[in-house]
Amino acid sequence: MSPDAIDLTQVAGAGGVVWSVSPDGLHANLVVLECGGSIPAHRNDGLDVLLVVLAGAGVATVDGEAIELRAGAALLVPRGTERSVTAGDPGLRYLAVHAQRGPLTIGEKDLSDEVSSRARNEPPP
Is residue 7 in a domain? Predict the structure, then answer.
């Protein structure tokens, strides 16, 4: 089977993750935010995350420092930092890429299939 190329500028949706892929060892999310939309402040202690801006503009705030984002920019967000992203005008479209993490769990329940389904806008298994 040959790989399929996906035009990430044409993937529909907004308000967060609209597409994702998880080949062995890697995870990538396409995040689309309308003007003023945001990913709230959060901390990830386990993984470095690379943000690659495909279109639009916005601001990433990493441990209180505001960093301007625009098409073509790449930002490495180190593990252990608090970060948020807010879209400017006309919105923001970026890839968030990181090493694949183990399954998400709450207590004993493995949530990895449910989270993956939500990222692809499919009902959970």
Answer: no
Asked if the structure places residue 55 within a domain, the reply is yes
Residues composing the chain: 125
Tell me 109's DSSP state.
E
- Residue closest to 102 by CA, chosen among 52, 29, 27, 16: 27
Q: What is the pTM of this model?
A: 0.78
At 78, list the tokens.
Answer: 């180190």
Q: State the DSSP code for 8.
A: T
Report how far residue 61's alpha carbon sits from residue 67's, in angstroms, rounded to the nearest whole number.
Answer: 6
Identify residue 43 by its one-letter amino acid code: R
CATH of the domain at 97: 2.60.120.10
> Per residue in 27-71, pLDDT tens?
999 999 999 999 999 998 889 999 999 999 999 999 999 999 999
Q: Is residue 97 part of a domain?
A: yes
Number of structural domains found in the chain: 1
